[in-house]
Every structure is written in structure tokens, then in C-alpha cells.
Amino acid sequence: MRMLYGYEEYRLKEGISPGTLVTELELLKSFVRFVNLRNEKQLEPYEIKPADVRAFLDQEKAKGLKPGTVKRKLSHIRQYFHYLWKVGKVPVDFMPKFEYQLVIEKPVAQLDYAEFVHEKKKVLQHPTLMLNAKLYFLFAMAGFRMREIERLRSRHFRDLGDRVEMNFVTSQDVFWQLVFEDPIEVAVIVQAMERAVFREHDYLISSEKKYGPDYVRNNMKDIYSGLTLLLPKPFKTEEVRIAYIYDLYKVQGKSFDEMVELLGIRPASLTSALKLVFERYNKI
């Protein structure tokens, strides 16, 4: 669509994962179609009004979508209007002042990090579990965001024999260094590095293509289903990350600075993450 020209390239430069970008673009295409039909003409970006955004969200809510899902759609639209303003396609970005009432119940943490730690050996050594599923599990357990997991390349890792060292610059431009010393984890990462060489591309969580540099995301439903069958509770990357942060803070007693280093994030990001942890873990 003409109205979305340039947006995909912009978002990729911003560090969005290819999988998330697909979802975002589909939502924005639906939004543009909706506002054009509503106004009975093809609008220019500056012609879209807050009432158009509100009507679109009302339509989505009427489908019976959960408030959290509608909120994510609103977030995508906010991001799009910020882009339009940055490139001069709209004189004013009205979205920062746009309000839309949604009642969202705050989730309560269900996962004790130790429950998954006890299953780590079984998961990482399982003979039929996909290698990518093992990698998602391994990195989520180390506090990685989904978008960082999918940016990992074999060049970010050094096989030192008894350990693997990671040197990685995150999407927040933070240098993140971790050392994996557990022999089981080392074996999984080295296997992924060797696979990348065989497939002649550098992605660690790689596509199913034998050759070619293009990243193709795995079917996450298959990844999550495979892991959930082996674990005492459903596997969700962000929930595992939140449980890990809680464990670092409350169980392991790590200092704020130690947590910043271990998680590869800025201090302000850790403050926000801890706020979320406090909300979900009422027992803190």
C-alpha cells in the first residue's frame, strides 16, 4: 500500500523482529483499508483523524478481541503515526494525546523459575525436540527478550571449548557479554553454530532453508507446544524472562548493577522491568 511505503525499512532499522513486523504490517494494512472505506476515498496520511482511529478500534473490540489484543493494535498505530511525523507526512502526531478506554486485568505471575530450572537437562537433551525450541528455552531462561533471541548470529558467540562467550549489541545499543559454562548449554549453542555454517548463513535461530541468508521465523505455535509438553507449565518467553528477573532479585539477591549486566539492558529498562515484576509477584 502506498501509505505504508518506507515503513517496513524504517522498522527493520529500528530493530523489530521480522516476525513481529509481519504482524504489524498486516494490522496497518487493515487499518488503512478501514479508514479509506469509512471515508469513501483513498486518504492521505494527514487526512486521518482521531475519530478514524477510534472507529477502527471500536470495530476490533466488537469482534470480541481481548483488551490486551486491542491495546497491542493501538500500540502499532501509535508507532506508525510517529513514523509519519518523523518523515514529514503529517504535520502533527495526534496519537500521544489520543485516549482509548480499555479495561485490562493485570496478569498474576504463575511461574516459579526453579520449576523450569529443574527441567532444563531434560529439555536441552531431549532427542526429538527441535533445536530451535531448545534455543528459545535456553535464551529465555537467561533473560533474553524474543526480539533479541531472533537477532542472534553465530558471529556473536565464541566456542572456547569448555564454555561459550557471547558478545552482542542489543537493539537498545547495549553491549551484552555473557558466558555459558553449563556443558549442556554449551553443547546446544555449539550445535546451532555448526548448523549455521552448514546452511551458509549466520542466524543462530535459523530458517528451515538449507541455504540462503534470509531469515524465516519458525512456527512459534510448534515451538511453544513442543516445550509445553515437556514442562510443568506452559512455555511463554516473556513469562520466563519475568520469572528469571524475579529469581535474580528475590532468590539470588543480585544487586541492581549485577542485574543490569546479566540482563544486558539499560538501568531505566531494569527499573521498568522490576516494576512489572512487583505487579505480577504480589509476594515481593
From TrEMBL:
Annotated Core-binding (CB) domain residues: 1-85
Pfam families recorded: Phage_int_SAM_1
The organism's superkingdom is given as Bacteria
Keywords in alphabetical order: DNA-binding
- The reply to whether Transcription regulation figures as a keyword in the UniProt entry is no
- The answer to whether UniProt assigns keyword RNA-binding to this entry is no
Under which name does UniProt file this protein? Site-specific integrase
Protein's organism? Planococcus wigleyi
